[in-house]
Design goal:
By secondary structure, the chain is α+β, with helices and mostly antiparallel strands. The chain is 23% helix and 23% strand. A four-stranded mixed β-sheet has the order 1-5-6-2. Strands 3-4 form a two-stranded antiparallel ribbon. It has a two-stranded antiparallel sheet with strand order 7-8. The longest helix has 17 residues.
Length: 134
């Protein structure tokens, strides 16, 4: 019985890894240009963000890692007065570079990342939702 609380410690630590990575108010004003079209925008620079990709021998969920990287990039880009970010490459070892842009009225139309698509109505009127990893 005494070993049970000790076994729960690693589980709680794994869950604690994502605490604190939230989109702040300024980051909410920053859009992500998933289509990559920022030709009408002013380049403000590059933001590189990183999160833990592994906790000990355990790989974290790839979707969760990517979501956290996007949140962090949007928060950091807001500090540069950017209103749009664009991924400059794929995440590598929990790190990803993002371009920060000021698009103003020429902001790219909101697009969704393939993993977070909006539900689509079917012929029977039923909506389906994508399964999101935790």
């Amino acid at each position: 019985m005494r070993k049970t609380p000790l076994l729960l410690v690693p589980v709680l630590l794994l869950g604690a890894c994502t605490w604190g990575i939230t989109l702040n108010d300024a980051g909410k004003q920053v859009r992500t240009a998933w289509n990559g079209d920022v030709s009408q925008c002013r380049d403000l620079g590059k933001v590189t963000v990183s999160v833990m990709e592994r906790v000990g021998p355990v790989d974290r969920n790839d979707i969760k890692v990517r979501d956290e990287l996007e949140v962090m990039a949007r928060n950091e880009a807001a500090k540069m007065s950017a209103d749009t970010v664009k991924p400059l490459g794929e995440p590598v070892d929990g790190e990803q570079a993002w371009g920060a842009y000021q698009c103003g009225s020429a902001r790219p139309a909101p697009t969704t990342q393939p993993a977070t698509q909006q539900p689509a109505p079917t012929a029977s009127g039923v909506q389906t939702y994508p399964i999101q990893g935790s």
